[in-house]
Structure prediction request, 498 residues.
Amino acid sequence: MDLILPEILTNAPSHVCRKWRHVVLSSPSLWTSITVNTKASEDIENHLTSFRFLLQKALQNSKDAPLQIQIGNMSLCRPEVEVAFMELLWPHRAHWASFEIRRFSGDGISTWRKQRQLSKSQDKAMPALRSLGLSLSMMRGAEEFLALFDESPALDKLSLRGFPGEDVDAATIGSLNIRWYNIRTLALTPYQTPHVELADLLGKMENLTVLRLSMLRLYDDEALIPSQTSQNFPELEAFMLSDTKDLGEPSELLPQIYAPLLRVLSLDRTSPEILDSFITNTIECNIIKLDIHHLESDEPASFTEVLARLPKLSLQSKLEPEVFLQVIQRLGELICPELEDLAFLSEEDCEPGLHSSILDAIADFLEARWPVDVLQSSASVDHFPPSITLQPVPRRTTRAHLRLQCPGVLDRVDQSTGQSAEPALERLRAVASRRQDDIDVDVGWRSYSNIVSRSYHFTLPVARDSAEVVLDEVKCDELGNDWNDGEFYEIQMVYSSM
Prediction:
């Protein structure tokens, strides 16, 4: 890199034509995303002069536009690289809109502290910073590092890995001059759990809308919040709890949470009893999206009884095949009348005969939920009249998706019984074809190499109030999933007007 003049490197994107050069150099928004992959730390260290020039040029060209900064594991680099970063980035802190760093050491912190002490009091603030992601594990001076961001009045999205943990505790963090009541999205990956302190800190976030907790490196006898503590989240709409250690027991945290506005619930493992207890504690359950990776229950029917208490549920996923079959069989009884999305995922094969049963249950569900005019019921599978009458829907209908996903489960022939699933598949296709204006079916099978995954995809009519604002989805993308680099999440609530 040092063999090429830095001036040439920074101007290379504009060397297409004169007009394009003008666009590149006069558009600050093209220079606002700064991403540094520290896995190539040797390249940075060997060409530090050129790298400093490139970063400085990008910061200058961005002018006053909001900056999106994402930095990898700085502990992989030599101290002088950290210092160079901090010296260049800190003067532009007033324009940081998001800042994420996977890991840091104490050398860069001391550089920031010195520069902050030299700054005027009004220059310490980060007025544009809205999203902050930090890894505090194995960091010297973790509290001091987080304190650098306490003058961030617009901060509403926070992701902390290794918190609470050995290097930082909730009581110390809670005492920082951070406007906790402004935080609306919070993602925590705790390493240790000082129970009372964490509960107190969460209690300060009264406007929290999205909460993600990734349980990591916890002892089996530890609980995230003491059993006698009830946590009130009056504005919480989405709660995601993952158990990366796989403790093997359903979480007891859910019944301790009171969230009357909760609409999205995602759990690694739970039981129908725990889920039912949570619903009972909620005055009016508004859950529309439910994800359960592992359902701890020997009786699938008990889970369908829980679903019957969720009239607004529209998305349900990650069920075991046996539970999925029970749910499909009950859906025809008009439980979950607004269900649009249903999926089950399993790495294991189904029990003998379950392949055909699942397909038949889906067909029964479609016939019960969307009956076709009985006069057309004897039509040929291959030739249908152009006009098919559906039962009237009282409100305006929109097309919605019911996805039935089953990777690694279905075979054309049940290997244990030799029974072919083709008749059940043909019946399902026929039922769907009779509703061809409203239902699309895409059915796949397991390949002999067990590599190709299968999915069902249906498009169904669902009644919606035209004035209703609905939650389409909750995006939760992992920005980093390497243990050494840390783990951060971009969580976004996506709404639309119907």
About this structure: Residues 314 and 339 are 4 Å apart (CA to CA). The first strand starts at residue 33 and ends at 36. Confidence is low (pLDDT under 50) at residues 217-221, 374-402, 405-412, 440-498.
